[in-house]
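Reviewer 2 asked us to include a model.

Predict the structure of this chain.
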Amino acid sequence: QVQLVESGGGLVQAGGSLRLSCAASGRTFSSYAMGWFRQAPGKEREFVAAIRWSGGTTRYADSVKGRFIISRDNAKNTAYLQMNSLKPEDTAVYYCAAGYTTYQYDYWGQGTQVTVSS
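Predicted model (structure tokens):
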């Protein structure tokens, strides 16, 4: 089992930045790929970014490419999502997830709210 806890969400003006953190406990964090997803009110959950266990390979949704950066620190059992140039349409609950690949996830956090005001 892996337990995931997100933090760092909040209210920010358009054009601002936030950094989300996902702290993991339980089985070896470095064995898992990590992903970030988001769900806006009335919409389905969507993929945002993912990173392989080694940190060497990342991928992003087109909507955040060039603005968001996913990273991880295996020594701290933590994954991050640096969000820059935020837009109102980035408003959502953001979830981190862990899995054996960057396409399939077995463990999820409880989510953290990000609100971007115009």
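DSSP finds no helices and eleven strands in the chain. The mean pLDDT is 95. We have added this to the supplementary material.
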